[in-house]
Design brief:
- The structure holds two protein chains of two kinds.
- By secondary structure, chain A is α+β, with helices and mostly antiparallel strands.
- Chain A is built from nine helices and five strands, in the order αααααββααβαβαβ.
- Chain A has a five-stranded mixed β-sheet with strand order 1-2-5-3-4.
- In chain A, helix 8 links the parallel strand 3 and strand 4.
- Chain B is built from four helices and no strands.
- In chain B, helix 2 packs antiparallel against helix 3, helix 2 runs parallel beside helix 4 and helix 3 packs antiparallel against helix 4.
- Chains A and B meet through helix 5 of A and helix 4 of B.
């Protein structure tokens, strides 16, 4: 009993299998060939990439090629014709991608060219600026050098002027000194005419005879003595001096105290007259030495006459 | 007798034509594919590996199409020539793209160098 049941089942299974075979065959016809699969993938990739922007015409051609392949597949299944059309469709998608890449590169290149030009212009401008700055710096340096040169020229001119001025001053001074020396010599000469002049260690000693200056026993200057002293004062002023000491001297006759007094008075009389002639008071002083410093013997009248004297000791200017 | 012979002959010829697929020799397609191959070569396809691959495919397919034409399979020959033409066009596009990319890269490098030189 079991065997026939099994054979019935086997017969049913065989029937089912027989029924499925044609439908499986129909499903096999719906599997797209690898060319179509590749074409779809290629188109999808191209459509998602820059080709939509950069190669729209080629992408459209690729789309039409893929549509043709799909139609061919739908009507005839995966036959050789479908494969060939799908193959071409894949290439069209790849061409769209390649054209997009080329267009992209072309645009990149155009941009780079523009950048190059603008950079070049920028560079030129920069170089121009640098050159301009260098030119300005050079001009500034030159101007400074010119100014320095002018300054140097001015300084040289000024130095020359100063040298000339100094020379002129020296000449003037020399002339003045010569003049002064001449004046001093003239003053000395005129002094020597009116008085005895000799140079000693203590200075230039001008000796005026007492008889010329005063009456015997008096200390008032005689009128002629005033004239002489006026000349002496003039000569002293011309010659120049540091200080004057007026010493009064007498002979040895009479009392020493009287002589001292008289000699001082006479010295003061001479000093006072010299003061009236413009000799500064702080440069002159008077002393009475009496008969303490005779220059000759007091035995003879001549000797005594020589001893009666007024000496003006001149300390010269250094 | 003669009329019958002629009729049989005509029928035989018609049958032969039907067996050949009936398509004409795709001379225009062949010429176009060959021109595209030439164009791709001139366009520098041989200098780029990827372009060179498609150039070779195009050439091989033209050879195959010529064999198919000899075998009177003109319909398949025409489609093979379509494939060849598509490959030749792709080879040219790839060559042009590679060349353009090279030039763009070079131009960018030049800009970079110039900028570097200026900013020294």
């Amino acid at each position: 009993m079991i065997k026939p049941r099994l054979s019935i089942r086997s017969a049913f299974a065989a029937l089912v299998c027989l029924a499925l075979v044609p439908s499986l065959a129909a499903c096999g016809a719906a599997i797209p060939p690898s060319e179509l699969v590749d074409a779809r993938t290629a188109y999808k990739r191209a459509a998602a990439g820059p080709a939509t922007q950069l190669a729209p015409a080629q992408l459209d051609t690729a789309k039409q090629a893929l549509d043709n392949a799909e139609k061919q597949f739908a009507s005839d299944g995966p036959n050789q014709k479908t494969k060939d059309i799908a193959y071409v469709a894949e290439r069209r998608a790849e061409i769209a991608e390649a054209e997009a890449a080329r267009e992209g590169a072309d645009r990149q290149r155009s941009k780079a060219d523009k950048d190059f030009k603008s950079t070049e212009m920028e560079g030129l401008a920069k170089t121009k600026d640098q050159l301009e700055a260098e030119r300005r710096a050079r001009e500034q340096t030159k101007a400074e050098a010119d100014r320095n040169r002018e300054r140097s020229a001015d300084e040289i001119a000024r130095s020359k002027d100063e040298i000339n001025k100094t020379k002129a001053e020296l000449a003037t001074e020399k002339a003045a000194r010569a003049e002064a020396e001449k004046k001093a010599a003239a003053a000395m000469a005129s002094l020597q005419e009116i008085a005895k002049v000799k140079e000693e260690a203590r200075g230039v000693v001008i000796t005026l005879s007492g008889s010329v200056l005063f009456a015997t026993g008096k200390s008032d200057l005689l009128p002629i003595a005033k004239d002489k002293l006026t000349e002496v004062a003039k000569a002293l002023k011309d010659q120049g001096f540091k200080s004057l000491l007026v010493e009064g001297h007498t002979d040895s006759r009479g009392k020493a105290a009287d002589n001292d007094k008289l000699s001082l008075k006479r010295a003061e009389a001479v000093r006072d007259h010299l003061l009236t002639q413009g000799i500064p008071a702080d440069k002159i002083r008077a002393e009475g030495l009496g008969s303490t410093r005779p220059v000759a013997e007091n035995d003879t009248a001549e000797g005594r006459a020589n001893n009666r004297r007024v000496e003006i000791i001149v300390t010269p200017e250094k | 007798m003669n009329v019958r012979f002629l009729l049989v002959g005509c029928c035989a010829c018609a049958l032969t034509a039907m067996a050949c697929g009936g398509a004409a020799v795709p001379q225009d397609a062949l010429t176009a594919a060959q021109a595209d191959v030439k164009g791709a070569e001139v366009g520098g396809a041989a200098e780029n590996p990827q372009a060179m691959l498609h150039l070779k495919l195009a050439k091989d397919q033209i050879d195959e199409a010529q064999k198919l034409i000899k075998d009177n399979d003109n319909e398949q020959a025409a489609r093979t020539l379509d494939r060849a033409q598509a490959d030749a066009e792709l080879a040219l596009s790839l060559a042009k793209a590679a060349k353009a990319q090279g030039e763009a890269s070079e131009a960018s490098d030049q800009v970079g160098q110039l900028k570097k030189q200026i900013n020294k």
